[in-house]
């Protein structure tokens, strides 16, 4: 009996290893299908994993990978911070005036509906072809994602907790910090989870339109000279970047929302 | 402020909520309700479900406003129906233990209990000692670092109770605080409450729909009618303390009073 208690059953351990093993198997299967597709279609049409990796290695060795990644990442980060901070802060301000919230709601919905890509020529006209245009482009996408998630958080604040704290002598500032902020935080994390990949792809798309550096510029340049390996390599680099950023966010979220009973179950 | 003034006095209190669309006049929840509580008295109020008991306590705690009437605290007028701004908790003088425990889910038990003291800027040595004593008295020692969702229902109730006791308001309102727990836990919680009350002798207004609980805990039982609620009877409970809450029917005079209240409540 004691053996069964102190050591996990073999079946349980096998189940534990099932997920990582499955991931590796899926990864290998994906690479195999990719290589097979490349062989069938020809490497000019679909460069295989080996060619792609060789290109990424080449780019890394020449220093271009670092340079272009830094440009794209920098545009996405600054746009994310500006647009994200504004989008997250606005619901907290609107909470103070329900009338302003009602008044602004249709305007914000309309602005959300405007296709940002269609405005790209205007952005270039106003901000040039440098990094500013991409930052504005990213910020204009990210702002709404955080605004709507933050608003949903603010609207879900439990008024009973607010009343309880008021009776116990808490100021409105303490209530904002304690109840409103902590209720809204999980919503903002959901917003970030969608917004971070969008910020990166927003920067890349911005570089497609007009740029002289960055991963989007590299992909666009490769496309213009029929360098399919360059296109695929660029796409892979952006994907890896998105995965890395997501993993970092997951860590921050797990630490910040440790109190939640569902924090573990909800991890995707 | 005269010495003879009761701790809390409610005069001619009435309440109805603003009419919903399509409704001509909303019904009265409370009508011409008057009573008083003396210093260190344990007052229980018993009434049928939906009698407006929570509404009454919300008004006294100034979470909600009155439609008519006045409320005095130690002889001082603290609330009227004139539409003046409410002051929830009347400057931390009126504590309120609600039906739900209303613990902050993102704070540990100890942080929840000490939060009122901290926001009031009173979390000093003496307060820490007091919190320690309360945790010990309610068997919560060892669970200080647990989040509310990791605690049992009874533990959450006790935490919510001592959160208010810890900052020591002179009067505490309790709205069926032991409603949603099983019978055994409930008896234990009631016993805990009486013991804590015996240590500090606060003024308590305890609202419940459970006749047995009202008689078992109170110095005085007020019987409320169906909505619109009024006070229909006022009984002094002469059962001597300490009371054994595990055996209510063995308490002298309990059975007769239970019958009387049961008839009045209908």
Describe it for me?
The complex is a heterodimer of chains A (268) and B (266). Chain A is mainly α. Chain A has one domain (26-37, 48-256): MetI-like (MetI-like fold, Orthogonal Bundle). Chain A has 11 helices and no strands. Chain A is globular and about 70 Å long. The model of chain A is unreliable at 1-6 (pLDDT under 50). Chain B has a 6-stranded mixed sheet, sandwiched between helices. In chain B, strands 2-1-4-5 form a 4-stranded antiparallel sheet, with helices on one face. In chain B, helix 3 (125-137) packs antiparallel against helix 4 and helix 6 crosses helix 7 (254-265). Chain B is globular and about 55 Å long. The model of chain B has no long low-confidence stretch (mean pLDDT 91). The chains are: A mainly alpha (268), B alpha/beta (266). Chain A binds chain B through residues 160-161, 163-171, 174, 178-179, 182, 259-261, and chain B through 61-63, 88-89, 91-92, 94-96, 98, 100, 102, 104-107, 115-116, 119-120, 147, 149-150, 163-164, 167.
């Amino acid at each position: 009996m004691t053996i069964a208690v102190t050591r996990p059953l073999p079946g349980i351990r096998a189940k534990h290893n099932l997920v990582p093993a499955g991931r590796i198997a899926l990864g290998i299967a994906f690479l195999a299908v990719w290589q097979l597709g490349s062989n069938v279609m020809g490497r000019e049409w679909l460069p295989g994993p080996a060619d792609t990796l060789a290109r990424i290695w080449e780019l890394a060795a020449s220093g271009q990978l670092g340079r272009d990644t830094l440009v794209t990442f920098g545009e996405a980060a600054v746009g994310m911070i500006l647009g994200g901070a504004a989008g997250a802060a606005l619901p907290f301000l609107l909470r103070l005036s329900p009338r302003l919230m009602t008044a602004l709601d249709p305007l914000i919905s309309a602005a959300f509906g405007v296709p940002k890509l269609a405005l790209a020529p205007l952005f270039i006209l106003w901000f040039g072809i440098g990094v500013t245009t991409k930052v504005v482009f990213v910020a204009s996408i990210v702002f709404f994602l955080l605004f709507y998630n933050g608003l949903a958080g603010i609207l879900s604040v439990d008024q009973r907790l607010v009343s309880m704290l008021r009776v116990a002598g808490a100021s409105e500032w303490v209530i904002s910090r304690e109840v409103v902020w902590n209720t809204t935080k999980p919503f903002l994390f959901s917003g970030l989870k969608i917004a971070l990949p969008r910020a990166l792809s927003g920067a890349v798309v911005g570089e497609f339109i007009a740029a002289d550096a960055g991963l989007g510029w590299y992909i666009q340049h490769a496309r213009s000279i029929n360098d399919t390996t360059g296109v695929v390599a660029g796409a892979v680099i952006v994907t890896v970047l998105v995965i890395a950023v997501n993993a970092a966010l997951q860590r921050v979220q797990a630490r910040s929302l440790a109190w939640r009973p569902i924090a573990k179950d909800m991890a995707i | 402020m005269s010495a003879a003034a009761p701790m809390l006095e409610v005069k001619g209190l009435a309440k109805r909520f603003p009419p919903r669309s399509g409704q001509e006049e909303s019904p009265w929840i409370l009508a011409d309700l008057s009573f008083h509580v003396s210093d260190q008295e344990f007052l229980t109020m018993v009434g049928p479900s939906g009698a407006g008991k929570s509404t009454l306590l919300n008004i006294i705690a100034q979470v909600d406003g009155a439609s008519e009437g006045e409320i005095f605290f130690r002889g001082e007028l603290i609330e009227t129906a004139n539409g003046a701004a409410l002051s929830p908790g009347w400057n931390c003088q009126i504590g309120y233990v609600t039906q739900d425990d209303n613990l902050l889910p993102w704070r540990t038990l100890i942080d929840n209990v000490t939060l009122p003291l901290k926001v009031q800027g009173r979390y000093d040595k003496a307060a820490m000692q007091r919190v320690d004593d309360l945790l010990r008295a309610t068997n919560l020692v060892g669970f200080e670092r647990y989040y509310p969702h990791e605690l049992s229902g009874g533990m959450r109730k006790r935490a919510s109770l001592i959160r208010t006791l810890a900052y020591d308001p002179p009067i505490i309102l309790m709205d069926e605080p032991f409603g949603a727990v099983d019978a055994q836990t409930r008896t234990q919680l009631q016993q805990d409450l009486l013991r804590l009350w015996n240590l500090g002798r606060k003024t308590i207004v305890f609202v419940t729909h459970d006749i047995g609980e009202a008689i078992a805990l109170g110095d005085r039982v007020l019987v409320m009618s169906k909505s619109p609620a009024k006070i229909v009877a006022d009984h002094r409970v002469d059962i001597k303390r300490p009371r054994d809450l595990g055996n209510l029917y063995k308490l002298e005079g309990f059975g007769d009073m239970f019958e009387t209240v049961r008839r009045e409540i209908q």
